[in-house]
Amino acid sequence: MIKTRVIPCLLLKGSGFYKTIKFKKPTYLGDPINILRIFNEKEVDEIMILDIGATPSNKGPNMAFLNDLASECFMPLGYGGGVTTIDQMRMLFQLGFEKVTLNTAAVEKPELVSEAAKRFGSQSIVVSIDVKNGMLGGYEVMTRCGAGKTGRNPADFAREMEQRGAGEILLNSIDRDGTMHGYDLALLKMVSSVVSVPVVACGGAGSVAHLREAVEQGGASAVAAGSFFVFQGKHRAVLINVPSPAELEAAFSS
């Protein structure tokens, strides 16, 4: 039985799911309810829903709509996007979400991570770190769906978030997002080597071999992917396609 968690990461915008390439060119995937039902049937480990329209629009989570999504989902469910207050987190947990992900707020209001961990427990607080390759080398933490520069080093920032109580780091490479060319293993190794909490690799998966590389070479504790689970073939036709447990077990045990 495979122990590595494999997590579909679904991008919400308005009332639909989309997939981006390098945080741009969003492709419409379909109705979220239908897509979640398919993932229910595939019996995936958990689902992460990230609203990519909330923070850029300065909007909070759409609780009524998220309630509809949570009612259709029969697996552990996480949400991120526009979360800036403890009250919003409490409402999300009441709706049935098991994890809340903080991204921009973790940079702009880091004390929110500390307070959330104390209120709800570290196991339910995820800090998502979006990282871009610098023009002169190195990495930089970005906010606001890749539009906001921070000047922060991802390893230093991840260490601070762990100290503040984050129970998990979702590490996303902007430059690999949607490319299906593999994870940024150097980035993964840099961050996973300085924190003890689980690091979830995101950005670039295109095969089960990439999932294995993230764990064995990058030090990730879990793997998340978008395009790999929703596109099929070189023309990127939309088709929910999750590797079978047997395929995943073979990839991680070979």
Characterization of the model:
The chain has 254 residues and is an alpha/beta fold. Helices cover 34% and strands 27% of the residues. The chain has a single domain (5-253), classed as TIM Barrel (Alpha-Beta Barrel). It has helices at 32-42, 63-72, 86-95, 104-108, 111-120, 154-164, 185-192, 208-216, 227-230, 245-253, and strands spanning 5-13, 16-21, 24-30, 47-51, 77-80, 99-102, 125-133, 139-143, 148-149, 168-173, 199-202, 222-225, 231-232, 237-238. The chain is globular, with a radius of gyration of 17 Å. The protein starts with a strand and ends with a helix.
Features:
254 residues; alpha/beta; TIM Barrel; eight-stranded parallel beta barrel; two-stranded antiparallel ribbon; 10 helices
List the helices and strands and how they pair.
Blueprint: E1 5-13, E2 16-21, E3 24-30, H1 32-42, E4 47-51, H2 63-72, E5 77-80, H3 86-95, E6 99-102, H4 104-108, H5 111-120, E7 125-133, E8 139-143, E9 148-149, H6 154-164, E10 168-173, H7 185-192, E11 199-202, H8 208-216, E12 222-225, H9 227-230, E13 231-232, E14 237-238, H10 245-253
Rg for CA atoms: 17 Å
What is the chain-wise order of helices and strands? EEEHEHEHEHHEEEHEHEHEHEEH
Q: What's the CATH topology label?
A: TIM Barrel
CATH architecture: Alpha-Beta Barrel
Concise summary:
This protein is an alpha/beta fold. It contains 10 helices and 14 strands.
